[in-house]
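Supplementary Methods, section 5.1.

A reviewer requested that the exact input to the structure prediction be made available. We therefore reproduce it here, unchanged from the version used in the analyses.
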Amino acid sequence: MSAPGVTPAAQMDYSAKYALHAAGASPAIIDSALHVRGVVNAYYRGRATKDEAARAIGGISGAPWFSQVFLPTGTGLPDKPAQTQWRAQMDYDPLAVVARVKVPMAFFFAGDDAYVPLPESMAHVSDVVTVTDVMIQRVPDTDHFMETGASGAGLTSADYVQSLLDWLRRHELGRRGAK
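The structure derived from this sequence is encoded token-by-token as follows.
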């Protein structure tokens, strides 16, 4: 459900862009925020200095939209970024695992997702699956959590539940018939 077909770093860039766009930010603001995210990520990867990252953050930290771009303050940067959890996770490739799976799979994607780039993730998953029994479905009118209505309202989509149950029943009946 809502599986990203991109690295966590790309997913966070997408989330920042989504949040800024939803808030009505201009393309120039979005570009600026993504540039700073790139400098900070370069710092975590050992390709930029702490001063460069802090300066980049300082250039936007006073903006009213700063909290929407998922960045630390300049003083919140770690001294040893290579030893952080973010560095260990940021370039993880989820598709490498998907490509090795040899059992039937079902992927459900939201109608609108603030955290996962949908067309890109769906295409990437489709490109790497090696089994023929795979379902990739976008569930209309849902968010990242397969909920409908106001985000966080806890109203799970009936379409999602029905599609999941149908898929599970088909595969359980198929498995029982194979015995």
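The longest strand covers residues 105-110. These observations are discussed further in the main text.
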